[in-house]
């Protein structure tokens, strides 16, 4: 039986490409942003992810998926990787890979949890821990394209030391409102006691239910489900709440 041909654009996204590490920077003690040059990169949308494949000299191969942190920028792709204890891939990416090293990327992947520059409606971003990565790509894409869509970001972390992209998020931007939530330890003098995300936290930042806002929620499974339930209870349209979650993968 003949096989159906894979459309050209899809075939391009499914092809493994050699990526060379050309830069890096620390985001937190446990997270590192890696900058790759990927010749022939087909471009991506904010919110998409890639598959990363590592192959050892003996032929052993393993792969993981990581959200893209960067706005579209030619052949450059940035990934922010959080170290996972005993993680096979994350340990290498955060501690072992060096400038000039190569690995394989496949993608971009995903077409629902994305923000497009032509969107003009208000946007609420709700991040739990490293779930901020694809949401940061949306913030960066908004800035790069000069979009006037108003953004609000609620970023939940355990402690102040766990905040990624802090300098960038603190850069004044009249179209972006950023608020932090701390679940374990808050900065001295912080008005809210450390604790889990609650309805008042979202109510203080969410757009009115009739504003037609799109909501993006990303983080661990429990956080995402909890946040989505709170948003619906606050009157947000479930059809306009987009979620992406992650759980233990072995790193």
TrEMBL record:
<dbReference type="InterPro" id="IPR001433">
    <property type="entry name" value="OxRdtase_FAD/NAD-bd"/>
</dbReference>
<dbReference type="InterPro" id="IPR008333">
    <property type="entry name" value="Cbr1-like_FAD-bd_dom"/>
</dbReference>
<dbReference type="InterPro" id="IPR039261">
    <property type="entry name" value="FNR_nucleotide-bd"/>
</dbReference>
<dbReference type="InterPro" id="IPR050415">
    <property type="entry name" value="MRET"/>
</dbReference>
<keyword id="KW-0479">Metal-binding</keyword>
<dbReference type="InterPro" id="IPR017938">
    <property type="entry name" value="Riboflavin_synthase-like_b-brl"/>
</dbReference>
<protein>
    <submittedName>
        <fullName>Ferredoxin reductase</fullName>
    </submittedName>
</protein>
<dbReference type="InterPro" id="IPR017927">
    <property type="entry name" value="FAD-bd_FR_type"/>
</dbReference>
<feature type="domain" description="FAD-binding FR-type">
    <location>
        <begin position="14"/>
        <end position="115"/>
    </location>
</feature>
<keyword id="KW-0408">Iron</keyword>
<dbReference type="Pfam" id="PF00970">
    <property type="entry name" value="FAD_binding_6"/>
</dbReference>
<keyword id="KW-0411">Iron-sulfur</keyword>
<keyword id="KW-0001">2Fe-2S</keyword>
<dbReference type="Pfam" id="PF00175">
    <property type="entry name" value="NAD_binding_1"/>
</dbReference>
């Amino acid at each position: 039986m003949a096989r159906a041909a894979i459309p050209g654009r899809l075939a391009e996204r499914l092809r493994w490409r050699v990526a060379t590490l050309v830069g890096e920077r620390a985001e937190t003690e446990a997270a590192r942003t890696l900058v790759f040059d990927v010749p022939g990169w087909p471009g991506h949308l904010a919110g998409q992810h890639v598959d990363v494949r590592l192959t050892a000299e003996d032929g052993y191969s393993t792969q993981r998926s990581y959200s893209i942190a960067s706005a579209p920028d030619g052949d450059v792709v940035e990934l922010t990787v959080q170290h996972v204890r005993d993680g096979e891939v994350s340990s290498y990416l955060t501690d072992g890979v060096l400038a000039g090293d190569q690995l394989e990327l496949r993608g971009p992947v995903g077409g629902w949890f994305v923000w497009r520059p032509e969107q003009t409606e208000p946007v609420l971003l709700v991040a739990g821990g490293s779930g901020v990565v694809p949401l940061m790509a949306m913030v960066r894409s908004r800035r790069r394209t000069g979009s006037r869509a108003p953004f609000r970001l609620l970023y939940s972390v355990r402690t102040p030391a766990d905040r990624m992209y802090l300098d960038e998020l603190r850069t004044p931007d009249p179209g972006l409102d950023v608020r932090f939530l701390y679940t374990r330890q808050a900065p001295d003098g912080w008005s809210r006691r450390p604790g889990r995300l609650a309805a008042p936290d979202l109510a203080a930042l969410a757009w009115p239910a009739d504003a037609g806002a799109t909501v993006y929620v990303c983080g661990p499974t429990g956080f995402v489900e909890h946040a989505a339930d709170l948003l619906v209870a606050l009157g947000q349209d479930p059809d306009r709440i987009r979620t992406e979650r992650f759980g233990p993968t072995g790193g």
